[in-house]
Specification:
This protein is mainly β and 395 residues long. Helices cover 7% and strands 40% of the residues. The chain folds into 2 domains: 330 residues, YVTN repeat-like/Quinoprotein amine dehydrogenase (Methylamine Dehydrogenase, Chain H); 62 residues. The N terminus is likely disordered.
């Protein structure tokens, strides 16, 4: 879930410079491509023009491992290369020309040379003592969320002869890790969010802890504010203040319709892979009044999300378990504000029903209130905008 080009890891998120895609207009359909699953798609990451997809096997139904696709045209991804892993690949971190894969209890930590994406080459592996669920990278150290055996700090300077440099015991089940300067954040399931001083990776020390109303699964750092977002499964999403490194403080928690498995941040928006709740988009510009601004149903169970920036907003790649990768056009289109529900681009009674539910704030859906000022309350002005748009139809 992590791209790391220096010492900063941002979980589940890849944001590239704005690009113009001739085949993807802001008002194009929200769902415009699907990458079929090789088995069960668990994670996606983006680096440059390449999408890295991790699939794992359930009951030996299909092959597991890494797939690499060229997404220079996101509407038409092109297969480039693949690498079969021995375990159940669940997380990937890209650092330069190397890919670090958390391959589960059977595969451990894998390090691949991806300088030629068409032919990834194994540089080395290390069987960690635990479940090897997630990985981030700082310098030559790979930091692994190792399940009930805590966090492993692995010397990966020479991938062919890696070794565990130190171990941090946690009271929960370490599921995700995010490096932010000299601080490591750990999603420790029912033990909540941990902050760890890693000034000396050989002697990590827990400096802070925040309890969660659900099980802490995924982490993402805001690119514009001192906020950390935590996916809490049935507990929704937590916003934590990390303005004091190593001392996170709870700001608020927000329930989502599904099971929040992973989060990504872009500007002040939070993108939540909400399993059978699909992809939820939250507005966190005011952390005390967080609300859903968009909901995108997916065919499977959304487990992870990676983003690139288009000319008028974002394009999302959602790891959707049995449904593969769903590619969603999230670019902002103001030509049809009444288009509230699938099938998008067509106005019908599904849009009316979705607007009514949003108007009454059912399932924390705030989209109706966003149609007109003031945007913090749904009122007659929002109804007028919706009806005017509905009567005019979509372009």
């Amino acid at each position: 879930m992590t791209i790391n080009t220096n010492i900063l890891g941002v979980v589940c998120l890849a944001v590239l410079a704005p690009v113009a895609f001739a085949d993807i207009e802001p008002c194009a359909p929200d769902y415009f491509a699907t990458i079929a699953p090789a088995s069960f798609t668990r994670d996606v990451e983006i680096a440059g023009d390449y999408l890295y997809i991790l699939d794992d096997t359930v009951l030996e139904q299909a092959q597991t491992g890494l797939r690499i696709l060229d997404i220079s045209n996101p509407a038409a991804p092109v297969f480039v290369g693949a690498f079969t892993t021995p375990g159940q690949a669940s997380d990937i971190a890209i650092a330069g020309e190397r890919a670090y894969i958390a391959d589960g209890g059977m595969g451990g930590l894998l390090v691949l040379d991806i300088s030629d994406p068409a032919t990834p080459v194994m540089l080395g592996s290390l069987d960690t003592p635990g479940a090897c669920l997630a990985v981030d990278v700082v310098g030559t150290t790979a930091v692994v969320a190792d399940g009930h055996l805590g966090v492993q700090f692995i010397d990966a300077a020479s991938p062919g002869s890696m070794s565990i440099a130190s171990t941090l015991d946690t009271d929960g089940l370490a599921t995700d890790v995010l490096v932010d300067g000299d601080t490591l954040y750990v999603a420790d399931r029912h033990n909540g969010l941990l902050a760890v001083d890693i000034t000396d990776p050989l002697n990590p020390a827990i400096t802070g802890q925040v309890g969660t109303q659900g099980a802490a699964f995924g982490l993402a750092r805001s690119p514009v504010d001192d906020f950390l977002y935590v996916a809490e499964a049935e507990g929704g999403v937590m916003l934590a203040d990390v303005s004091i490194p190593g001392s996170p403080a709870l700001i608020t928690e927000y329930n989502t319709p599904g099971t929040a498995r992973a989060v990504a941040a872009f500007g002040t928006d939070v993108y939540v892979a909400d399993m059978y709740g699909g992809l939820q988009v939250l507005d966190a510009s005011d952390p005390m009044f967080v609300g859903i601004t968009d909901t995108f149903a997916t065919d499977g169970a959304a487990a992870s999300v990676a983003l690139i920036e288009g000319t008028a907003g974002e394009i999302a790649f959602v790891a959707d378990n049995q449904a593969g990768v769903q590619i969603l056009n999230l670019q902002h289109c103001d030509d049809c504000p009444a288009d509230f529900a699938f099938p998008f681009g067509i106005l019908d009674l599904f849009d009316v029903d979705a607007f009514i539910q949003s108007f009454y704030h059912i399932d924390n859906d705030d989209r109706a209130a966003m149609l007109a000022e003031p945007t913090d309350v749904a009122d007659l002005a929002d109804i007028v905008v919706f009806l005017t748009s509905f009567n005019a139809g979509c372009p």
